[in-house]
Specification:
Blueprint lengths: L20 H23 L1 H25 L9 H11 L7 H13 L15 H12 L35 H7 L8 H8 L5 H6 L11 H13 L6 H20 L7 H6 L3 H8 L10 H21 L6 H18 L9 H9 L1
Helix pairs in contact: 1-2, 1-3, 1-9, 2-3, 2-4, 3-4, 3-5, 4-5, 5-14, 9-12, 10-12, 10-13, 13-14
Length: 353
């Protein structure tokens, strides 16, 4: 006898590209590796030790919470590795390693595991860890080392192996011996407190003082373009972030050119570039509606510039993205497209219900 024919009814979409979480995350890791490699080339052994320590801390914390919750290991989805790499690239290259462990643990524990794991987090885990150590270790988080120091591959910065709960040593004399004229201030700090602007060439070559992954703007854009072309990233979000930041900076410069820097400085300085490409685009914490992603990105760009110009901090990218993460569900709710054939009145009634 012939078997009874079976009809399967499935919801759309019916065409599947074959992308899995593991595959998408693996390609994000690949995109981050050139930026991490440039950071090591720029800052040497201390940056390498910090990158490895933060990433291993995130991976170990992920495995710990898998065991505590009785769930299967999620290390193969690469999400913890991505969190570690992004977090490390937002930290000073010579950040004390024991503080780096704290940052990695906090990012996974408070930013991810607390909410139920991958896809359930409300805020970007790497930025949760970064915000925690900025509040807990304000001096260490603003201690910088010079780029391309001649001794960067022969010795570690004095702060790297600071014992736990001990005050990091003063890095000023060591840095000045390594590079003549080292000021110990980032381009944003020098603009805000000294009214000194770095040149675009300094940013493009990486010859500035900054966090580990902030100075390779061209490399960040190329790696982001790779993800966008492979459709592993929504290109509209970084475009909205960068365009809104540039437009806001342009308006302020028109008002007072002597006080506010040009849009190019705003785009290249600080963590705006890496934040727009690799942090604001986190799939779990960003909107999904077509209009929502533009609103979300524009909000982040404007808030970043406002914090830089009028806040007590020199940088505003981290807080701007966290604010955007918190508002993402609301943005999705108010930007839901109408069902085909539905009137605006019925759509509004459905939202109220």
């Amino acid at each position: 006898m012939n078997p009874t024919p079976r009809i399967e009814l499935r919801a759309s979409p019916h065409v599947v590209r074959g992308n899995s979480v593991e595959r998408i995350m693996f390609h994000v890791v690949l995109a981050l590796l050139p930026i991490a490699a440039f950071s090591v080339w720029q800052y040497g052994l201390s940056a390498l030790a910090m990158l490895v320590t933060v990433t291993l801390s995130c991976v170990a914390t992920e495995r710990l919470f898998n065991r505590l919750s009785g769930n299967p290991s999620t290390l193969t989805d690469w999400s913890a590795t991505i969190t570690g790499l992004i977090l490390a690239l937002t930290l000073p290259p010579a950040f004390p390693l024991w503080m780096a462990v704290v940052a990695g643990f906090t990012s996974i524990a408070l930013g991810k595991a607390l909410f139920g794991g991958i896809g359930c987090n409300v805020l970007n885990p790497a930025l949760v860890g970064r915000a925690f150590v900025q509040a807990a270790f304000p001096v260490a988080i603003t201690t910088w080392v010079p780029a391309f120091a001649p001794n960067r591959f022969s010795e570690f910065a004095p702060t790297t192996f600071t014992p736990p709960f001990m005050t990091p040593p003063d890095i000023g004399e060591w840095a000045k011996r390594a590079v003549d004229g080292f000021t110990g201030a980032t381009p944003l700090a020098r603009w805000k407190f000294e009214n000194v602007l770095a040149t675009p060439a300094d940013f493009l070559t990486g010859a500035v003082t900054a966090s580990a992954g902030e100075t390779s703007a061209i490399l960040i854009l190329l790696c982001g373009a790779y993800l966008a072309i492979r459709k592993f990233m929504d290109w509209r979000i970084p475009v909205a972030v960068l365009a809104s930041a540039a437009l806001t900076a342009y308006v302020f410069q028109l008002v007072d050119p002597s006080r506010y820097p040009d849009p190019l400085f705003v785009l290249l300085s600080g963590g705006l570039m890496i934040g727009a490409v690799f942090m604001a685009t986190d799939m779990a914490t960003s909107p999904v509606t077509p209009r929502g992603v533009w609103i979300y990105g524009a909000l982040i760009g404007v808030v970043t510039v406002m914090i830089r110009y009028f806040g007590g901090l020199t940088e505003g990218v981290m807080y701007a993205i966290l604010i955007g993460n918190a508002l993402a569900p609301l943005i999705d709710q108010v930007t839901q497209p109408r069902v085909f054939g539905q009137t605006r009145e019925k759509a509004a009634m459905g939202k109220k219900a």
